[in-house]
Batch of 4 targets.
Target 1
Amino acid sequence: MISISMLFLGSRVFAMNIDAVRFGAYPDKVRMVLDLSDISDFRVFTLSDPYRMVIDLPNTSWQAGTVNRNEQTFVSDIRHGKLNQDISRIVFDLKQPVMIKAAFMLPQNGEKPNRLVVDYQKTDQTTFQSQKGNIFGTLKTDHEQTETAQSTIPDFSVRPTESSSVETNTIAGIPLPPPNAMRPKRIHTAAPSVFKKHLIIIDPGHGGVDPGATNGRIYEKHIVLALAKALKSELLKTGRYEVKMTRETDVFIRLKDRVKFARKHEGDLFVSIHADSIKKPQVHGSSIYTLSKKASDAQTAKLAEKENQADLMAGVHFEVEDEQVAFILGDFLINDTMNQSKFFANTVVSSFRVNGLHTLDTPHRYAGFAVLKAPDIPSILIEAGFVSNAAEAKLLSTESHRKKLAKAIRSGIDTYFDYVHKNERN
Ligand code: ZN
């Protein structure tokens, strides 16, 4: 068991180069790529009046020279500098409102350096306004910053009187806690965690009386159990992990008992595995979800509602949540865990892309999933694909595709812990 709080405290010590900034225009998006000397935490968001897109990274050194851009990038100017002693900011002045579709880190791969990729597209004023609170990435404000700027992160690029508090003092709509509450309470410092195996809790959704999504004779509960087992064997092969599964057979388990199981065993990560279903049969691809009080979009809010009804589906009544859990949820601990969960989700999304797995356009989304509410364990829910899509339902029923998914998830988990350890050593 290790403390992952270190993850976000390491930014002070490592300075990273931004070696190049490149743009590519596609029919449906503009892709901006930052070549970096390292992978790191980041955050990307938009601001209005005037329209801007902002990228924050831990201390970086600008080696990118002058950046080439054309009309199709919607970028009129680029400025960069230090936001404070720990964070570097790049501001892209925009000619018109844009919507960020995705932002993710791709680790070095052969000749290709570490990259931060931001996909965006032009949008209208209304959509922009509804999107502009969304922060992609998990870079946090640190202590001093939170203290000196209770409600605003200074934006050196604009008139000093302008407040950008709405956009920046929350992450995914969740207010950032006061400075001293950022550290998880469950800190294990006794043993050098680098040599310890991490415990991964795999949670195959549904089971028993609750089949989950179905398409003819294809049941979500069977697919996700098979995928969970494939992931377990992938993880065990590395020798780096221990694995416990909330269910190994076709049995029903209540959502709160899945969370309890993970906490009882003090898991280091919690991975819930599902397969989705939707009325539009053409929709396919994987997506990754994390916990948030406010949903990222209406579709995800609906999905969470559906998944949260698993207990009802099985005829089990909702109970008042554990007092302890309810209490901790109101506590700041959960914010830290939620940030770690988002970072974890990003590493898995990156891994899906690197491994050529099809994802939804916005692959990382969030909402109030009950099964992700362990207050002290970074948790994600993976919708491996859509059983409502005939081709994907078939694919999910094959061992080879499940193995491919399992490998991608495992590699996301590897990256997550690589990063944790690197920051622990710093
Ligand atoms: Zn499900």
Target 2
Amino acid sequence: MTSGTTNGNATLTITRPDDWHLHLRDDDLMAAVLPWTTRCFARAVIMPNLKPPVTTAAAAAAYYERILDALHPDVDFTPLMTLYLTDAMKPAEIERAKAQGFVVAAKLYPAGATTNSEAGVTDLRRARPLFEALAACGLPLLVHGEVTDPDVDVFDREAVFIERHLRLLLDDVPDLKVVLEHVTTRQAVAFVEQGPPTLAATITAHHLLLNRGAMFQGGLNPHLYCLPVLKREEHRQALVAAATGGSPRFFLGTDSAPHARTAKESGCGCAGIFSAPVAIEVYASVFEQAGALDRLEGFCGRHGPLFYGLPFNRGTLTLERRPFRVPAVVPAGTAGDLVPLAAGSSLDWSLVQPAARLVRED
Ligand code: NCD
Ligand code: ZN
């Protein structure tokens, strides 16, 4: 990491970061959102909750090809693919996916927990052969850690998942690498900090930036509704402490999850925040406010590769302390308009985009 100044503004140059949790979608929507990720991130872990979900090695390969086809030929970006676990999946599917080389993890959605999770796992105990297959081939399990029990309050679903399921899962398959995705509570932070070295967590930009009050500020803000839902201020502060504290167990995962404006501003708005257009700028602002800019590089570009056993990126990314006006709307062609996180507001850090740095160097 190097600091400097350009035109009197502070600059920060870090190893080019990765996004360890991204919803890239498909078709026109993918084409529209992909440049917002590739402008910044060198690699991203691509979530498999398409319709239909990516439940086979062959489907992961086809999706991988569609992403490569959608990339501008000069852009240096590597999609890291995932497999969506189901009750019906056989361990051999995991071995087939691993053998392809570009599948880096499997995703556990408790059935019904979030967007397009209906085909997910209904009983974690029955999925144990899948977890063992993952451990045997060294692929991490990425967990959407919320119970689906309707008797559990929506704000408590993560903490209850940890107690009811995650503890048992880690005990049952101790060799399995597990990422608790998009942690939102102080309970999750404490659990990850005290857990085995095989356990890590991603943290989103929006959960670092906002508490649940933001959803109701001046009226109901559907664009701030996501799952796991935003939590109280005490939890946000625990997340900031975890992200900025330097522990390699926490790393960047935006969970950028675009939905058309009409699907968000609806009688039953769907869950997901489109943060790719502002994510790195928000992370930089949060780290600066915490007095921890020197730890931004570890969180964004080191801890993830260390956990996944992948090399660090060779390129760099430069941020500048100059106001960044967030677009109010991002058009997505036939997929409709998208409203990004922090739409219409101004952030403290901007991306300096030397196009040459974002294209292949080999
Ligand atoms: C995600 C989506 O829209 O696919 N939504 C969200 O609120 N985060 C699914 C998910 O990651 O839970
Ligand atoms: Zn997600």
Target 3
Amino acid sequence: MAVNTAFTDACFRRPTDYTPVWFMRQAGRYLPGYKVLRKKHEVLEIAHTPELAATVSLEPVDRLGVDAAILFADIMLVPMAMGVDVKIVDAVGPVIDDPVAGSQAIERLNAIDASDISFLSDTIRLIKQSAKVPLIGFSGAPFTLASYLIEGRPSRTWIKTKRFMYAEPALWHALMDKLTRAIGIYLDEQVHAGVDALQLFDSWVGCLSPADFRQYVLPYNRQIFAQLNKHKVPRIMFGTDTGAMLADIASVDCEVVGVDWRTDIASAQKLLPNKALQGNLDPAVLLSGWPVVETQTKALLDHVPSRTGFIFNLGHGVLPDTSPDTLKGLVDYVHEH
Ligand code: CP3
């Protein structure tokens, strides 16, 4: 299958004919086909059924003309493979009835191997049979996964997580170490199955101070990327609210850094001269009418100092009420501008 390489070329900061674009959470909740499927199947059921997951991954590629596909999965598949009982509750998100509170829960976490995620490898192989664009595999990062394990549900303060990290540093490092190993195996297996790029979602790491990020998180993210170097596929480090951490993120062995709209893209390019950048339109712009989308997109594209090594994306995931037609218009606009 001939693959459009604009996305992977941009990851390696090679010149491309146009600026490639894809959207975080493009394979999900705003898509008509996905909504129909969700009437019959739970999110985790779709993620565990290769034919369904492959269909959802491909829907935005056909409909929007994006330059990359993303695997339909969830960051909580790693803790689930480690033996944690996770439920996805509608309008809430991942819920764990028995959150991690001490050493026993950490000891109980299983190491994983490829056989624990064979369903994911099957999904990847299915997508690769028909995708005409590169396929992005992904995992949650250790901090973001630890935050769900400790909070037991989505949080916007991460107080339990921080208290655990500060008050129980030895346990924190034991937990991060176990997650790091499992994530490494999970991502290795995705490459073996055929993904063309990898993204690590550290969605909530921006809640930490830069010093705490350096001490409690950065060594694990660096370790994950360093051990992925052998695969030669481009690696994307993504987080939100990471503006104050970019000088540290520069030390991560990855090709691409994803930033959200709170970070100025030109300043980010200055701090990260050796990385490609991905971002960073505020997803709320897409709910505000086409003239706003066009003005903001033009302003962003004109503001990026170098379009070589730039991948257009939102600063975070597509919001549920976004119109697929607006996204399609945005893809065309970025390709033409
Ligand atoms: O949004 C991010 O920050 C990306 C990282 C992330 C994913 N899942 C990746 C994902 C995070 C933080 C999660 C946790 C999670 N899982 C949440 C957010 C909860 C919170 O704290 O706000 C939710 C709602 C889930 C459950 C879930 N995962 C649903 C309902 C779906 C399907 C459709 C959708 O988009 O809502 C997923 C799929 C999912 N989670 C994907 C990814 C990369 C695949 C789809 C895609 O990216 O296109």
Target 4
Amino acid sequence: MTDWQDNQVFWDEALKTIQNHVSEQEFVMWFQQISYSGSEQDTISVTVPSSFYRDQVKQRYLELILTTLKELSGRAFQIEFDIVRTEMTPPPQRAEPTIPDAHGAPEAAVNRPPRRAVPAPGLIVDYTFQNFIVGDNNRFAANAAMAIARNPGTTYNPCLIYGGVGLGKTHLLHSIGNAVWEDRAGEGKIVYVTAEDFTNEFIRSIQENKTHMFKSKYRNADVLLIDDIHFLQKKNETQEELFHTFNALFDAKKQMIFTSDRPVSEIKDITERLQNRFTRGLTVDLQPPQMETAVAILKTKAEKRGVHVSDEVINLICQKITTNVRDLEAALTKIIAYAELVNKEVSLEVAQRQLKDFFSSPMQNNITVDIIQRVVADYFNLSPSELKGKKRTRQVAFPRQMAMYISREITEASMTDVGLEFGGRDHTTVMHACQRINSRMRTDPTIEDIIQTLIRRIREEGSRA
Ligand code: ADP
Ligand code: MG
């Protein structure tokens, strides 16, 4: 056996060992995309589909890979990563779909003329990967979506994308559909439907005695995209129908992608077996964009409309609106409409005045410290009065700090206001709480997850209030 064949054995064995050490999802997401490509003495070369993959794999798993190889071979290997884009047989003139990055140059992608030969039926032509700006908040989801578009029905089936309103779920769903459509040069049956329309169509098909047509439409899809599955709560018969649709498509290796405004485990009144199906493949989430990404998105949108909006106005919008991309866009639209009306560029002062209503709109404003206290207390199994009370045991102190931190993050309340709401505490206590949470977030990533979950629930409560 020559040297490199030996090494391939070690690589294959290492992957098998790793498969037992990481979750199935992790393995599918990160390891199935790595291929052994050769080796030299103590260096193993592998290929990965993108620099994103390479960086993520290095950061998350390089150590695991190296120690596993060492355990198996007794040798200290190095890994060399090469980027090879895996593609399906491309139709002529097909350009690789690229996603503009918030830190890169979104302009390049925007200036490229859109190809609109024959649009895919039911899909929005502008919702493409090219028009989707990637930042830390959505990178994982965007990469997964692109990987799916390249090889539908193979590795990540189904895929579930979840995230709050206006964060790009529908955009990504259509992007997958559009990319597959383009890839297959208009062949193939791509079916996009909202869960609501799916439900209504199903009901109508029963009334009109045409369930066979309904079934054949969905069970013959090559790619099925269902938006907003949280709508299926309590719709028992539709859930049942979708369950069978799912099984038929899954067995036929047809790609399914679903979106939801919350994790599936938080969708109430949905059968367990359907929940299991939704989460059988890959689940990815979308978060609100950070400042840089928000700025990149708005600059791109302004450019697309051929309007110049100054950096300071864009920064103002992004500082003030942190909820989601839809709200950001709405604020930009308002500014642009005004600029067109007065026929000149909008100054910072005018923007401030124009956006005043927007900032105090109910959507941004319905959240009170009171709601935050209720949701946080509930999450930690405490009562709101305990959160506001004097007790300083760890069980209470940490949730209290979280609640104070969130109050500062998502309401307009000052440190003093927040202190008053928490049993008349001093503003320095609030400041200290925020610092504590900030520093804990740096060392413990789960804190950030908890905060995001809490904020989502708070916004839901707020929108019901
Ligand atoms: P959701 O379905 O999650 O409620 P949408 O997909 O409808 O959100 O997105 C709301 C708006 O924001 C759409 O106009 C969409 O194009 C835009 N949008 C969201 N995320 C991005 C992004 N990363 N880059 C560019 N536009 C985005
Ligand atoms: Mg949507």
